[in-house]
UniProtKB/TrEMBL annotation:
Homodimer. Keywords: Amino-acid biosynthesis, Decarboxylase, Lyase, Lysine biosynthesis, Pyridoxal phosphate. GO terms for molecular function: diaminopimelate decarboxylase activity; pyridoxal phosphate binding. Gene3D superfamilies: Alanine racemase, Lyase, Ornithine Decarboxylase, Chain A, domain 1. Its cofactor is pyridoxal 5'-phosphate. The modification N6-(pyridoxal phosphate)lysine is found at residue 61. This is Diaminopimelate decarboxylase. It catalyses: meso-2,6-diaminopimelate + H(+) = L-lysine + CO2.
Length: 426
């Protein structure tokens, strides 16, 4: 739990605002974020690597709300984007193009052209086919594309299988031993400048030796590339640093950040490269909560279900990654705790938010799922025709709705019924 999200006189608060008061105003479910936590965590990450000329490019996929991005832009963050949509979001939040890197295994020609027209810092290339495409587009536009190539170092970060990206056998990057050929090919192509390497070995990594191993592989590669006459002047080490989803997360994360920074310094202090990092989760996860209301308590012969109004479409991490989010009542010690599965209204057995938890709650009570600031709202959908839920940004004693609840009318109005099917025939 972040220092800004805690009980005050028995009521769970984000900064100076009781979550129950937000629920009264915006209804449930909703997401709430602490601006102070986001600022503090970005500052801590930045400070840990300050002496390395490191550019911290926040990974928008973790939380793309324009208010959150504006906050990070003000703090000096760059952005890591993986689509034209994310690139436009970053620009709209005031993040300068020269602080934006574009990753992803499948950029379209349109996306590449847009990124080049904007003059972003770097495109992180993932295949020879993409390299050729970027060269063609840059030539047509009369610009030089700044590139790095994503290396798959074949290191197992020992995180969830669906969060593992730096092992061979995944779709990401090119094999370590193909990098020399890749650079040689790039040299022969017009309008590109390939002078960097990047990686991202996975997400929610708490096994820090995995970073140590991956970084060592990359440094070895930089030396090999330079020995072959190539320029390598920047390195992008991706994101991936894990957070604590239980207990005193901020204390534990401070220690982990210090360990990560030590590994980082060990490898990169004397490399004479500009360093780029792409943290997402570490900056925002524990700045956010997801608040939901208990609809029913449903005892069955096997177990008790707490049926809440939030569901897998709002917060898919438990269903998708077996993720653990701590569950806290908004009103401390309101009722005696029961052990239960917390499930939503969606018609799928995989729709659950927590399993086998001891939680104090009664019908009508409000519950908070902690650590929901990263990969929460961004991964939501309207499955079962459930409108997207609001996002709220708390700032001291105030809060703002930074994404209003989608209306059911707006949801229905997105679809178009062809004239021949319409009852009125018009
Ligand atoms: N850079 C690249 C190229 C990435 O693919 C990612 C995350 C990041 C940076 C940021 O990683 P972070 O610091 O947040 O770990 N939906 C999953 C997480 C998927 C991460 C995908 N890539 C979840 O809810 O756990």
């Amino acid at each position: 739990m972040s220092a800004d999200i805690r009980y005050v006189n028995g009521a769970l608060q984000v900064e100076g605002v009781a979550l129950a008061d937000i629920a009264t105003q915006v209804g449930t479910p909703f997401y709430a974020y602490s601006a102070a936590t986001i600022q503090r965590r970005f500052a801590a990450f930045h400070a840990a690597l300050a002496d390395l000329d490191a550019l911290i490019c926040f990974a928008l996929k973790a939380n793309g709300n324009q208010a959150v991005l504006s906050l990070l832009a003000q703090a000096g963050a760059g952005a890591e984007v993986v689509s034209e949509g994310e690139l436009r979001r970053a620009l709209a939040a005031g993040i300068a193009p020269e602080k934006i890197v574009f990753s992803g295994v499948g950029k379209s020609a349109g996306e590449v052209a847009f990124a080049l027209e904007q003059g972003i810092l770097c495109l992180n290339v993932e295949s020879l086919s993409e390299l050729q495409m970027i060269s063609d587009i840059a030539t047509r536009l009369g610009v030089t594309a700044r590139l790095s190539v994503r290396i798959n170092p074949d290191v197992d970060p020992k995180t969830h299988a669906k969060l593992t990206t730096g092992k061979s056998g995944t779709k990401f990057g090119i094999a370590w031993d193909q990098a020399l050929d890749f650079f040689a090919t790039a040299r022969a192509l017009p309008n590109i400048s390939l002078t960097g390497i990047d990686t991202h070995i996975g997400s929610q990594i708490t096994n820090l030796p995995a970073f140590d191993a991956a970084f060592a592989r990359l440094v070895e590669l930089v030396h090999a590339l330079r020995a072959a006459g190539h320029v390598v002047d920047h390195m992008d080490l991706g994101g991936g640093l894990g957070v604590a989803y239980q207990g005193d997360s901020e204390g534990e994360e401070t220690v982990r950040l210090a360990q990560y920074a030590t590994i980082f310094h060990k490898h990169f202090t004397d490399l004479d490269c500009r360093m780029i990092l792409e943290p997402g989760r570490f900056i925002v996860a524990n700045a956010g909560v997801f608040v939901t209301r208990v609809l029913h308590l449903k005892p069955t012969p096997e177990k008790t279900y707490v049926v809440v109004d939030g569901a897998m479409n709002d917060l898919i991490r438990p269903t998708m990654y077996d993720a653990h989010h701590a569950v806290l009542p908004l009103c401390e010690e309101a009722t005696a705790p029961i052990t239960a599965d917390i499930v939503g209204p969606v018609c799928e057995p995989g729709d659950f938010l927590a399993k086998g938890r001891k939680v104090a709650c009664a019908q009508g009570d409000l519950l908070a799922l902690m650590g929901a600031g990263a990969y929460g709202a961004v991964l939501s959908s309207t499955y079962n025709a459930r409108p997207l839920v609001p996002e709220v940004l708390v700032h001291g004693a105030d809060f703002d709705v930074v994404r209003p609840r989608q209306s059911i009318e707006a949801l229905i109005a997105q679809d178009r019924v062809p004239a021949w099917l319409r009852a009125d025939g018009k």
